[in-house]
Write a structure and sequence with these properties.
By secondary structure, the chain is an alpha/beta fold. The chain has two domains: 4-235 and 354-358, Rossmann fold; 237-347 and 414-423, no CATH class. It contains 13 helices and 14 strands. The longest helix has 35 residues, at 348-382. The protein is globular and about 75 Å long.
Length: 425
């Protein structure tokens, strides 16, 4: 039997003429078990930050089983350049879900130009057609983000001028998505909203679109990941742990197993992680501050603790890992979101270990897509007699990427942790 790598390289060797893998499933869930998600875009994607956050979420928070993610960003790219390369660089690997994020470079860093807009619109039509022909089931057209209102200096125009251009490009992507009945991810609107709120609190030095005004640090990249995860239909239900105070009982939903329960302390083992946030909230290079202005926890990251038998008139100490916080009985009876209330929690270390594996994988994917797969047809023209050797090299690289993706998934190991609830006397 031929390996998956050799099957994929056969498509590459034939200049990647890929037939449809199945009918377009408009009404199917955006994410299904065993989906392979390709995250495509320009240099903001090639930064490998929002794409890492997306993979963090899909592997650890587990909105569907057995998901795989790859990034295929290309610095300086515009949408019509992606049309020219998507067959050999992306579709050769046979993703079932593709997200795109173009427009930052397409707008030319100046006032809106109708000819650029038409090219962008027409190109997105071509992207959808090409992805469908290549067998992609779910397509998410993302809008461009924004430029920073304080740090942007590109093109000689003020930020408000180029943000107006990007807003029009976002409208074009939305129109194409509606006409083609694919998913639209609005990145521009949320980034503009969050930027205004964050700067109101932290000042103009808190950039959301990067120190250069274009390439976001981790704060803005988290906003981008949020937009795409919402577009992909992620429910945000990480799990619910229910503790019964009266009888020292506990139960948990899928992904969490109760190991013991005694004197208000429940020990659990979890294979499903909450998304974790890090750093100084006032630092744009952190993710912990921007969540104040973004409903990430409310909409995507709900790990609930519900305490049956909590007295409304009593306050309680809840200890999770090394952190203790106080809550009223009413709040506990209704359920508190542990992911939001305990940013420092037992999953932080394991989360970072998984992310390290993901970064290694996505760094390799830049070399795989931008260098090997992209230039393989040219290598064949230069040395046609080396076709079998080129096949072996490409197949080996594709197999290595699959192994790195498997290592990222395998890094999500069970986490044992203890929750303790005590009435304050």
């Amino acid at each position: 039997m031929r390996s998956p790598g050799h099957s994929a390289i056969a498509l590459v060797s034939s200049l990647l003429v890929i037939s449809a893998l199945g009918a377009w499933a408009q009404d199917a869930p955006a994410l299904q078990a065993q989906d392979f998600v390709a995250v495509c875009g320009d240099s903001i994607t090639e930064q490998k930050q929002y794409s890492v956050f997306i993979e963090d979420y899909l592997l650890m928070c587990q909105p569907a089983a057995g998901l795989r993610v790859m990034q295929a960003g290309w610095s300086g790219e515009v949408a019509h350049s992606f049309v020219q390369r998507m067959e050999r660089d992306v579709l050769a690997l046979r993703p079932t879900v593709v997200t795109t994020c173009y427009g930052m470079n397409d707008g030319g860093y100046g006032p809106y130009d109708a000819n650029r807009g038409k090219l962008y619109r027409d190109t997105h039509k071509a992207i959808v057609a090409g992805l469908r022909e290549g067998g992609v089931r779910t397509i998410v057209l993302g809008s461009p983000g924004c430029v920073d209102s304080d740090t942007f200096r590109g093109g000689g125009e003020p930020a408000e001028v180029y943000n107006a251009t990007l807003s029009q490009f976002a409208d074009l992507a939305r129109e194409v998505a509606g006409e083609e009945q694919v998913i639209f991810a609005d990145v521009h609107g949320p980034m503009m909203d969050v930027m205004a709120q964050a700067k109101a609190k932290y000042g103009p030095g808190y950039h959301l679109a990067g120190g250069d005004g274009v390439h976001p640090a981790q704060n803005g990249q988290l906003v981008m990941a949020y937009c795409f995860l919402r577009a992909l239909g992620c429910s945000g239900d990480i799990g619910t742990i229910t503790l019964g105070l009266a009888g020292d009982t506990a139960e948990a939903t899928a992904g969490h197993s109760v190991l013991s329960c005694d004197a208000g302390a429940v020990e659990l083992e979890s294979t499903r992680y909450p998304f974790c946030f890090f750093g100084d909230p006032a630092n744009p290079g952190a993710t912990s501050g921007v969540i104040e202005f973004l409903p990430f926890n409310e909409e995507l990251n709900r790990l609930l603790l519900v305490v049956d038998g909590a007295d409304a008139a009593t306050r309680y100490r809840v200890t999770w890992g090394e952190v203790t916080r106080e809550f009223g009985g009413t709040a506990l009876a209704e359920g508190i979101n542990l992911a939001a209330e305990f940013l420092d929690n037992p999953f932080c270390g394991p989360f970072q270990a998984v992310e390290k594996a993901i970064r290694e994988q996505q760094n390799f994917e830049t070399l795989l897509t931008k260098t090997l797969l992209h230039w393989l047809p040219a290598y064949r023209e230069l040395a046609p007699e080396e076709g079998p050797a080129l096949d072996r090299v490409a197949a080996s690289a594709i197999d290595r990427d699959a192994a790195l993706a498997a290592a990222s998934s395998a890094a999500v190991v069970p986490v044992r942790h203890v929750l303790k609830v005590e009435a304050i006397r």
